[in-house]
Design brief:
This protein has 629 residues and is an alpha/beta fold. The protein has a domain at 22-336: ABC transporter transmembrane region fold (Up-down Bundle). The protein contains 22 helices and ten strands. The strands form two sheets. It has a six-stranded mixed β-sheet. Helix 3 runs parallel beside helix 7 (134-175). The longest helix has 54 residues, at 237-290.
Length: 629
């Protein structure tokens, strides 16, 4: 079997030690539980009453054996029978009430944690998602949140067991302090086993979480359309199956190891408890023979001693469960504590009635250090420390201006910084120095919502959700009417294609829109931008991978998208931007030349070289976008 490394599990014991003393983690967890304080009080009251009611049945059986039976008192038998039934019904009702309280609080805690985690992750920068393994992140939202929920059940169990122990010990002491003392002689054995095996069991539980997350990551990456297609194109199904078998085998082996250690742990605890019960029977029987105890008292003590060791076993294992739950909380808080690099400044203003004037002034940019945007445990190799140094400079002193309604083209070789430059406008990244402004406002001084409302982006590979065409369009404008959808799609030259589908606008596009062709996806993305109606449009090589027929359709759609809007167009096919107001030629993060198509061709610089390389010096037919500037 292939050796598979599972990042993070070497740190299990250290993490458990941290969780053991992590009072701060417990306080933060209480912060999430605070809204449920009234129900927590009700839950604790129910637990307390349940502990008292649960301690009474042995006393009923003692009275039955010592009083009712010897005296043949049928009336007392019936009363004791009714008391036993009443106590049983009371325990059942209290159990149901406690279950409702516990599930309400626990499920509410899951909801709060998941929504807080989801909302926080949505605010994380793009760099976070480019480094993070999706499966590991999903594991935080599912497995770790569920693990954190166990804290409620564990704490409730602890309280119930403590109250049960107190009432049991009090009643046992009243019946016979000697037998009670003897029954407590095995308590050191519980403590010893907990110290020896409890931590090992918690470490194994943590390891299983990690390798389960690793297996989930593999499935997430391979089961999406792009991953499955890549596997098939490279003929790797057998190798992928072997690799997955290795990961699944590790999950299996960890499950077996966890089950065996757990059985040893709990089985040994039960054995120690059985020794205590045997000791109680021995001492109690001797006392009965010598006349210092009644038979009924011995029966009651034997029932109580079982109630004594049950809570002791639970309390020993509760420590393990609590440590595991605290580790889950730590993993959730680890994500919640990750700082979002893109935040609204205090006092940010709305961009009201934008005109679309864009200015980029002496902009320098480099990607932040991995340690500033990512979390080591969410990456493929969590044992490797994240880099503390930012990238080399991607943009170096870039400046230009686009007046309202103008089309500015960005051209240059791959890696020149074109896409990075346009990503600064909607604040997917923030400049390292310099200013990017719209209508004279630094984009960092604007509210994120008003900024994104003013900007529309059509990327090289637009993303569509696995939903209907109408739902994907309404992602830009949820309140859009059917008439508005049709109008936007007509302008994008895609309505006829949609209308010809059997389910029309209710057609499912498939994951990432794979049921549509490249040209249809592009035109649908353009329709989505038209529905948004921004004043600034960014086109990131929107036609670079299309054939001639689809490119012609998309070009006509783009002419509608760019009309009366400020446009920043990243052009792979230079023939499409010859009529731009200004063409900026980028190389190695700098603007090395600028001007109109004719001016740049006459100067014979990098632009002329790129143009000659693409077209062999011959002009291709212009599309509508080429004349829309």
């Amino acid at each position: 079997m292939e050796d598979v490394r599972f990042p993070g599990h070497r740190m299990d014991l250290a993490e458990l030690e941290a969780a053991q003393v992590g009072r701060g983690t417990l306080r933060r967890a209480w912060g999430f539980a605070r809204p449920y304080r009234p129900k927590l009080i009700g839950y604790l009251a129910t637990i307390a009453v349940t502990a008292v009611v649960g301690s009474l049945p042995p006393m009923v059986f003692r009275a039955l054996i010592d009083r009712a039976v010897p005296h043949k008192d049928l009336t007392l038998v019936w009363w004791l029978f009714a008391a036993a039934i009443g106590l049983a019904l009371g325990q059942t009702a209290l159990g149901l009430l406690g279950r409702w309280y516990g599930s309400f609080i626990g499920e509410g805690l899951i909801f709060d944690l998941r929504t807080a985690l989801y909302q926080h992750v949505q605010r994380m920068p793009v760099d976070f998602f480019t480094r993070t393994q999706t499966g590991s992140l999903l594991s935080r939202l599912s497995n770790d949140v569920l693990g954190a929920q166990q804290t409620v059940g564990t704490l409730a169990t602890v309280i119930s067991d403590v109250l049960g122990l107190i009432t049991t010990l009090v009643l046992m002491t009243v019946l016979s302090w000697e037998v009670t003392l003897a029954s407590l002689l095995v308590v050191p054995g519980f403590i010893f086993l907990d110290r020896r095996l409890g931590r090992r069991l918690a470490a194994l539980s943590r390891k299983r979480m990690v390798i389960n997350a690793d297996m989930s990551t593999t499935m997430t990456e391979r089961f999406n359309v792009a991953g499955a297609t890549l596997v098939k194109l490279f003929g790797r199904p057998a190798a992928e199956a072997d690799d997955f078998a290795g990961r699944a085998g590790a999950v299996r082996d960890s499950g077996v190891e966890l089950a065996v250690v757990g059985r040893i742990y709990y089985g040994t605890l039960a054995l120690v408890g059985s020794l205590g019960v045997a000791a109680v029977y021995l001492l109690g029987a001797r006392a009965v023979i010598h006349g210092s105890l009644t038979v009924g008292t011995l029966v009651a003590l034997s029932l109580y001693v079982q109630k004594l060791y049950g809570p002791l076993t639970d309390l020993a294992s509760a420590r393990v469960d609590l440590l595991t739950a605290l580790v889950s909380f730590d993993r959730v808080f680890e994500v919640l504590d990750a700082q979002a690099a893109i935040r609204e400044r205090p006092g940010a203003i709305d961009l009201v009635h934008p005109a679309g004037a864009v200015e980029v002034r002496d902009v320098w940019f480099r990607y932040p250090a991995a340690a500033d945007v990512s979390i080591a445990s969410l990456e493929s190799d969590a044992s490797r420390a994240l880099g503390a140094e930012p990238s080399d400079w991607i943009l170096r002193g870039v400046s230009f201006t686009a007046r309202p309604g103008e089309l500015i083209a960005l051209v240059g070789p791959s890696g020149a910084g074109k896409t990075t430059l346009t990503s600064l406008l909607p604040r997917l990244h923030d400049v390292s120095s310099g200013v990017v402004s719209i209508d004279g406002h630094d984009v960092r001084d604007l509210t994120l919502q008003s900024l994104t409302d003013a900007i529309g982006v059509v990327s090289q590979d637009p993303h569509l959700f696995h939903d209907t065409i109408a739902a994907n369009l309404r992602y830009a404008k949820p309140e859009a009417t059917d008439v508005e959808l049709v109008a936007a799609c007509r302008s994008a030259r895609i309505h006829e294609v949609i209308a010809a589908l059997p389910e029309g606008y209710d057609t499912l596009v498939g994951e990432r829109g794979y049921r549509l062709s490249g040209g249809e996806k592009q035109r649908l993305a353009i329709a989505r931008v038209l529905l948004k109606d921004p004043v600034v449009v960014v086109l990131d090589e929107a036609t670079s991978h299309l054939d001639s027929e689809n490119e012609a359709h998309v070009q006509r759609a783009l002419s509608a998208a760019l009309e009366q809007r400020t446009s920043l167009v990243i052009a792979h096919r230079l023939s499409t931007v010859r009529a731009a107001k200004e063409i900026l030629v980028l190389d190695a993060g700098r603007i090395v030349d600028r001007g109109t198509h004719n001016e740049l061709m006459q100067r014979g610089g990098l632009y002329a070289e790129l143009y000659a390389t693409q077209l062999g010096g011959e002009d291709a037919p212009e599309g509508p976008m080429a004349v829309s500037g």
